Amino acid sequence: QVQLVESGGGSVQAGGSLKLSCAASAYTYTYVCMGWFRQAPGKEREGVATIYTLSGITDYADSVKGRFTISRDNAKNTEYLQMNSLKPEDTAMYYCAANFAPCTVRADRFGYWGQGTQVTVSS
Q: Which of 43, 80, 105, 122 fits 47 for a cystine, CB–CB 3.0-4.6 Å?
């Protein structure tokens, strides 16, 4: 049974920063890929960033490239998403995800999910 728990969400003004954390029930390096997705009200869940757990190779959505950074600490079984220069359009529920298959931006291809943490950015 895989369990992922997100934390670190909150409300900030545009231009501010937040750091999200995702604690896994298993060691993160046992997964092939971990990632962050987000879903705004009435919209599809979209990929934000992914990271291969062993190699550290990352990928980002164009909308967050240069502002967000995904990382992981295998010893702590934890994945992070550092979010800088936040914009109102970043407002969404953010979800941590993991899989034993290669990284993808498609949410429906990930097998394991956290409960989500809300990020709200005001103008």
A: 105
pLDDT at 29: 66
Give me the helices (H) in 1-123, please: none
What is the average pLDDT across 30-44? 93
pLDDT mean across residues, the chain:
93
61 CB-contact burial (10 Å; exposed 0-12 / middle 13-18 / buried 19+): middle
pLDDT at 81 over 70: yes
Beta-sheet strands, E only, within 1-123: 4-7, 10-13, 18-24, 33-39, 46-52, 58-60, 68-73, 78-83, 92-99, 112-113, 117-122
Distance CA 71, CA 52 (A): 10
